[in-house]
Amino acid sequence: MAKNYYETLGIDKKASPDDIKKAFRKLAQKHHPDKGGDEAKFKEITEAYSVLADEKKRREYDSYGQTFAGGAPGGGGFDPSQFSGGFGGGVEFDLNDLFEGFGDIFGGAAARGGRGRMKRGRDISVDIEISFKESILGGKRSVLISKIDKCEVCQGSGAKPGAEMETCKTCNGAGRIHETRDSVLGAFTSVRTCPTCEGTGSVPKEKCENCTGHGVLKKEVELNIDIPRGIDGGEMIRMPGMGEAIKGGVSGDLYVKVHVKPHAVYRKDGANLIMELPVKLTDALVGTTVTITTIDEKTLEVKVPPMAKTEEILRIKGRGVHYDQATGDLLIRVTVTLPKKLSNKAKKAIEDLKTEGL
Fold first, then answer.
1. Which of 85, 106, 125, 246 could join 121 via S-S bond, C-beta 3.0 to 4.6 A?
2. pTM
3. Minimal CA–CA distance to 215: which of 165, 160, 171?
4. pLDDT tens digits for 267-283?
């Protein structure tokens, strides 16, 4: 079941950033494990704060729910190293510091910021607009996005091609450095990624000139997106490993939010396609055959039988949305249209019909 971060902190969804900080501060002091508090509860409120205190992540959480917040859906769960924020009043707070203080409570080496945890690049999202036809039949779309990507010269190592690597002197090859600081919750030992080697434990003797030794750099990348058949507007397409790159780790994911343009004739209802087909009164009485254009732009002869009422639904099997496991139908809603004006001849013909009991 998805978690409600607002309920976890006991605040309203419209709470201000200051309200969020105050609520977390109060609960953190109450449930702090070193003060005899509930460890599981402390982790929950810390996770909630790490999302709601970040303006961007809060927007994503409000839009997509808990599975997207904190690094997007499929992001591998809650990662405290991705978040930091401030308590206000000049007191700085870093969740890495907090989790370091509780060691194995939150996952051993991973919680302590150790090198045993694989670093992961940031998840990113883009919006695309597609035609109704594309949403039904599927297709491909290319987009140009600006993101942090692996350096194509050094392939992410940060070293000049052919250059040797050496142990980082700042962290002695550990990839991290320890610091002790005081906070409103007491003294904490923080474990931070080494700024010199960026957590890898080694540095090149000669840096790559293209990325200046970072292994990654921001650039424009063209991506090809496969649009699945039958996708609805508002749905997300996940592209694993196509998010932002990070030195010494794996790339994040790309999430594509799809917007579908409305169609002049068709609309979608589950696996079925629905269209409106107005017919003349005379055709409704005696029946007719109508030629329609399908969503894949083919012509189809549709036989309209004599109608017993002013509205009928014709079902054409297998002409709806084609999914892997099933195919929907085409539902044609036939309605009778009445003329705005009648000629004298038409009026006389209708009067004659009255004698037939029609």
1. 246
2. 0.59
3. 160
4. 999 999 999 999 998 89
